[in-house]
Amino acid sequence: MTRPIFHLRYMLLLGLLASPPAMAAEAFDVVEASIPEIQEALEDGRVTSRQLVDQYLQRIAKYELELNATMAVNPSAQAIADTLDAERRAGTLRGPLHGIPVALKDNIQTLDMPTTGGAVAFDGFMAPYEATIVENLKNAGAIILAKTTLTELANWVATGMPDNYNALRGYGMNPYDPRRDPRPGFDDGRPVMSTGGSSSGIGTAASFWAASVGTQTSGSLLIPSNNNMLVGIDPTIGRLSRHGIIPITMDQDSAGPMARTVAGAAVLLGAMENPSNTDANDPAIGRCDAVADRDYTAFLDEDGLTGARIGIPRAYYYEPVTPPGRDQPVGGLSSEAAALMQEAIAVLKSKGAVIVDPVVIPSQVAADPNDNQLLFGNCYDTQVRGQDSDCSIVMKYGMKKDFNQWLASLGEQAPVPTLAALRAFNADHPQRNAIKYGQQELDFSDEMDVERDRERYEADRAKDLRLTRTEGIDAALQDNDLEALLIPSWAGEQIADKAGYPQIIVPFGTVTTAYNPPLPEGFDVQPMPHGVAFMGTACSEPVLVRLAYAFEQATRRRVPPPQYH
């Protein structure tokens, strides 16, 4: 069971978060404060790290039971803040995040809070080692204030499990509409407005901490960033270490920053990088050349769009396309979203960008079904052995191979020894909601045999890379001499994630959500946040940061959630 000192509800009941912060005056307010603004306030003496922690704890105490954003709060956060304040007074700064509170998705291992992945079997689990990115954040001076909620095991448990649901904490709520869905069949407690998943942007959007770290395998960082009006960076696989993060597949897993501004996300990204650009525990590290001093703020240029060549891949992302052999078109935008993207393109042009429109991604318009990326998605629950010839087994194979390897790395402290044991535990604990939505994804991953299925896995992985890299993103960029592609919201998640290529999403507006079945008459439907994403080739984060920052400064469209501002 979770130790009471770590559990937020116990802390609330005991009053550990209830006393007002000791501040001489309200000289600095954490609400909507960006990391650069917090850095400046700390340097100027307008706020201390202890005061920051106290303010954030106050907000958690006030709003957490409405939003379910937090899995655990660090019981040592105030003491850590005091230590960092003393170091600052003595003239010692560890790095760019010195004394700044951030949060981690609860599949990232820490030594001072449980790492649960939201799974009942991992309730209270204290990891025997810390994730490499956590070590890097602490070395940069960050205060790890809390663990964020998440879709259980990064949304590889059951098809039909709502975003940001897990068996330990229930449903995370979107601060832009924190109401629950009232429709029959959907009235199990889930939010009416999706939070996105499996990472959580809830607490970052509601100013529970300065920024947070999410993870992505297939959209799990970009989607919540979009839905919570945040800047999210899903970096190149090989940019940040994955050691100490509960995996789905190391072929596609990545960690990345979620913040309220591009500048904040850039600071967090640099702080997570390995100083040596090597990692014995993650052989992908070193794929990209190191950025000087790990400082991505060097690429923050308000004029960064001038002369930039940016492509508009119309087919699928903007306009529907019918894949070969199919009767119905896929993709495209609603008229409202299309108008928003046209406005974004106009902004880019006005700031000096060269827009190439349209741009063709060859694998998404290929006439041969074997060459068409839209016809080769990830295998999911119904695509079991014998029914999975037209999809990639990379994710379900990885959840067997890489998840079991991660469990083995925990040694005797592993809550369960294997994926099969986890499935058995879940089946034995239905009274604890361990399988409220079933565990189809775990079941069909466990049917994989790492040796027997290796040849099929390697073939699928090679096809994924061919269709997303050489005949996909790279072909579109190289054929048109482009720096990036402009993608509506999170729609590029599958092609970029399979390729292991970076994206940055920036808030830009809202669009009306269509509900099927419709919401009850008189239910005031709130619009969904809608961002704009810049997608590039491997290791192009410096370019994407420059483009995203210039676009953000030209638009400044982020709007804080009204109830929590």
What does this molecule look like?
The chain is an alpha/beta fold and 565 residues long. The protein has a single domain, classed as Amidase signature (AS) enzymes (Alpha-Beta Complex), CATH 3.90.1300.10. 32% of the residues lie in helices and 11% in strands. The chain is built from 16 helices and 13 strands. The chain has helices at 8-14, 35-44, 49-67, 77-89, 132-139, 202-205, 222-227, 262-272, 314-317, 335-350, 394-409, 419-428, 440-446, 454-480, 493-499, 541-555, and strands at 70-73, 101-105, 143-148, 165-166, 170-171, 212-216, 231-234, 254-259, 309-311, 354-356, 484-488, 503-511, 528-535. Strands 1-3-2-6-8-7-12-13-11-9-10 form an eleven-stranded mixed sheet, sandwiched between helices. A hairpin with a 3-residue loop joins strand 4 (165-166) and strand 5 (170-171). The longest helix is centred in the C-terminal third of the chain and has 27 residues, at 454-480. It starts with 7 loop residues before the first helix and ends in a 10-residue tail after the last helix.
